[in-house]
From TrEMBL:
Protein name per UniProt: Anaerobic ribonucleoside-triphosphate reductase
GO BP annotations, alphabetical order: 2'-deoxyribonucleotide biosynthetic process; DNA replication
GO CC terms: anaerobic ribonucleoside-triphosphate reductase complex
Signal peptide: none
UniProt cross-references to InterPro entries, sorted A to Z: NrdD
Species name: Lacticaseibacillus casei
Top-level taxon of the source organism: Bacteria
Entry-linked Pfam families: NRDD
A GO MF label: ribonucleoside-diphosphate reductase activity, thioredoxin disulfide as acceptor
Length: 244
C-alpha cells in the first residue's frame, strides 16, 4: 500500500486508494486478512492461498462481525421515523425529504456492513410522499386559481418537477457518499411495478436521470444499480398498460 503496488491499490474499482479513508480501510483489510486466514479451518485457508478456491471479502470476514448485504425497509422507516446516532428522525412529509432520508439511511447502513444496500419497489415507496407534494400544491394554488382544470394542471406540473429534482438528488448524493469502507455505497434500486401517474413519473425520471449522466461530461453513474421489474400483464408486452 505504501509503495502503491497496483495489485493492492487497484484491487477494488469502487475504492479510490488516494483517499485517506480508503487507505485506512485497505490497511485494516490487510490485517483482517492475516487474522482471518488463521481463523479459517487449515484446509480452507490453504486452499485459498493456493488459489483452489477464493474466500470472498477476506478483508472483512470471518474476522469482523459484520453483515454482508441487506434489503433496507425504507417503507417502514420513512413512514414511521427512525434513529441515527443521537437524532430522532420524524417521518417524511415530501418526496424531497424522503429521498434525503433515504441517502442518510444508506450512508449509515453501508458503514455498518461490507456489502450492498437494496431498495425494493422504490417507485411505490416514494409515491405517497410525492402525493403529499401534490396535495400541498393543490391547496396552495387553489387559493389563487378558480379553474379546476388549470389548478390540476399546475399542481401536476409542479409535482413532476419535485419528483425529478428529488430523484436527481438521490443520484448525486449516492455517488458523492463515502462509507467507512472508503467507497461509494453499493446501492441497488428496484422499481417498475407502480401503476399510478406518480409512480410512473418516478419510474420515468429514474431512467431519464441515469441516461442524462452526471456533471458537465454526462458520465454514467456507477450507482445506484437499477433493476426494472417486468411483469406479464403490466409492462412486459405491447398490450400491457405500462408497456410504454
Amino acid at each position: 500500500l505504501v509503495n502503491r503496488d497496483e495489485s493492492v491499490v487497484n484491487e477494488n474499482a469502487n475504492k479510490d486508494s488516494r483517499v485517506f479513508s480508503t487507505q485506512r480501510d485497505l490497511t485494516a483489510g490487510a490485517v483482517a486478512k492475516a487474522i482471518g486466514l488463521k481463523m479459517l479451518p487449515p484446509a480452507v485457508a490453504n486452499a485459498h492461498l493456493r488459489g483452489d478456491i477464493h474466500w470472498h471479502d477476506l478483508d472483512y470476514t470471518p474476522f469482523m462481525a459484520e453483515t454482508n448485504c441487506c434489503l433496507i425497509d425504507f417503507d417502514y422507516m420513512l413512514n414511521h421515523g427512525f434513529s441515527i446516532g443521537n437524532a430522532e428522525v420524524e417521518p417524511a412529509h415530501s418526496i424531497q425529504v424522503a429521498v434525503t432520508q433515504m441517502t442518510q439511511i444508506i450512508a449509515n447502513v453501508a458503514s455498518s456492513q461490507y456489502g450492498g444496500c437494496s431498495s425494493d419497489r422504490t417507485d411505490q415507496v416514494l409515491a405517497p410522499f410525492a402525493e403529499k407534494n401534490y396535495q400541498k400544491h393543490l391547496r396552495e394554488f387553489g387559493s389563487v386559481i378558480d379553474d379546476p382544470a388549470k389548478l390540476e394542471a399546475l399542481a401536476v406540473k409542479q409535482t413532476k418537477k419535485d419528483i425529478y429534482d428529488a430523484l436527481q438528488t438521490l443520484e448525486y448524493q449516492v455517488n458523492t457518499l463515502y462509507s467507512t469502507q472508503g467507497q461509494t455505497p453499493f446501492v441497488t434500486v428496484g422499481f417498475g411495478l407502480g401503476t399510478s401517474w406518480i409512480e410512473r413519473e418516478i419510474q420515468k425520471d429514474i431512467l431519464k436521470i441515469r441516461i442524462l449522466g452526471l456533471g458537465k461530461e454526462r458520465r454514467t453513474a456507477i450507482f445506484p444499480k437499477l433493476v426494472f421489474t417486468l411483469k406479464r400483464g403490466l409492462n412486459l408486452t405491447p398490450e400491457d398498460p405500462n408497456y410504454d
